[in-house]
Amino acid sequence: MRMAETRTFIDQLKNGQTVDQIFLVRDKDLRVARNGSKYVTCTLCDKTGTLRGQMWQVPDAFYESIPVEGFLQVKGRAEDYKGTMQIVIDACRAAPAQAVRLDDFIAVAPRDVEAMWTDVLETLRKIKNKHLRLLIKKFLEDKDLVGAFKRAPAALQVHHPYVGGLLEHTLNLLNASQALLPLYPKLNADLVLTGAFLHDIGKSAELRIDTAAQYTEHGQLMGHITIASIWIAEKAARVAADGEEIPPRLLDVLQHIVLSHHGQREFGSPVTPAVPEAYFLHYLDNLDAKMFMTFRDIEADRDPNTPFTPYVRHLETSLYKWTNKVD
């Protein structure tokens, strides 16, 4: 039986508001204050966002009882701390999963997943190269992979971190590619579109969402770029087994586009871009992620009277919020 609860979602909490409801716990940390007492900080979540929870003077045993990736009944108050909402916890206890509505905690893409998938397929039909079409067909015939692709987030937190997020991000890159390709007619459009579709497909196996986005064991060990590269080689081998070998140079360049799309080795790419199509997709990938972050963090800011957001760690800046007021 679920607990009856009138829920205030995280994005609706007001400074000073009393809180007595369930949150999902993403992580926790036990720290020591200057006076030697111990306190807990944790990340509390629902489908609308995250905030920090903080509880003072707690024993080790109490800290151990807080369930990471589990649910916590929290009593306390919302408090604006340097422009960021947090909850000062007075009391809390673990809550069983049966006590919650999972829909309150699992964020979903704003667009319908099946509608986005239809748009992806429509764009992929525009690819003319027969070998790339055969390769893509092998991916589309893998129903388990397609199902995971539709559900996966694009990241844990940074951008599109919700069910359908990977699909949304991929569709954005396909749409952006189609918009910009006429400006650069020397690009191989078929390689660009295929690369846009496959660049992050390894996240279908790297990331999963149960109650929260998290890495799979396989994904943590391998990484989505490696997984995608392996899958491309496997699907190409199946195309060859059907009697139509993909030209090695074409396959190498496609693999290179996927392997280099993070742009730099320190960001996870084993090689850096060496063809125009790889640069093109690297910057579109980065653009879509950055646009998501800027819009999200501006919209999440709770102070309408200040022109800047608090410092955004992922962007290494505070964002100016009033570009719509410059006229």
Sequence-ordered SSE layout with sheet pairings:
Elements: E1 18-32, E2 38-46, E3 49-56, H1 60-64, E4 71-81, E5 84-95, H2 113-124, H3 130-141, H4 143-151, H5 165-180, H6 189-198, H7 203-206, E6 207-209, E7 213-215, H8 217-222, H9 224-241, H10 248-259, H11 276-300
Helix pairs in contact: 2-5, 3-9, 5-6, 5-11, 6-10, 6-11, 9-10
What descriptors fit this protein?
327 residues, alpha+beta, OB fold (Dihydrolipoamide Acetyltransferase, E2P), Hypothetical protein af1432, five-stranded mixed beta barrel, 39% helix, elongated
Describe, in plain words, how this protein is organized in 3D.
The chain has 327 residues and is α+β, with helices and mostly antiparallel strands. The chain is 39% helix and 19% strand. It is built from eleven helices and seven strands. It has helices at residues 60-64, 113-124, 130-141, 143-151, 165-180, 189-198, 203-206, 217-222, 224-241, 248-259, 276-300; strands spanning 18-32, 38-46, 49-56, 71-81, 84-95, 207-209, 213-215. The longest helix is centred in the C-terminal third of the chain and has 25 residues, at 276-300. It is elongated. It starts with 17 loop residues before the first strand and ends in a 27-residue tail after the last helix. The model has no long low-confidence stretch (mean pLDDT 91).
